[in-house]
Amino acid sequence: MSLLTILLVIIVAGFVLWLVNTMIPMDRKIKKILNIVVVVVVCIWLLKVFGLLSTLTNIHV
Questions:
Q1: Fewer beta carbons within 10 angstroms: which end of the chain, N or C?
Q2: What confidence score (pLDDT) does residue 60 get?
Q3: Burial environment of residue 55 by CB neighbours within 10 A (0 to 12, 13 to 18, 19 or more)
Q4: Cα–Cα distance for residue pair 14/49, rounded to 1 Å
Q5: Residue 25: is it exposed, middle or buried by C-beta count within 10 angstroms (0-12/13-18/19+)?
Q6: For 9-50, what is the HEC assignment?
Q7: Nearest 5 degrees, angle CA 40-CA 11-CA 13?
C-alpha cells in the first residue's frame, strides 16, 4: 500500500469525523466515545498496514 493511499485514508477518516462532530447534534459524551473509537480503529489499521500488528501478536510473555 502506498504512502499516498495511507495519507488519503487518514484525511478522509478525519474529514468524516469532523463532519459528524459538526453536523450531527449529539451529546458530548457520545461524540467523545465516537472520536475514541475512530482513532483506535485507525491506529489498529495503521499497525496492520505497516505489519506491526502481526509482530505484536506473535510476542509470548
A1: C
A2: 65
A3: exposed
A4: 18
A5: exposed
A6: HHHHHHHHHHHHHHHCCCCHHHHHHHHHHHHHHHHHHHHHHC
A7: 45
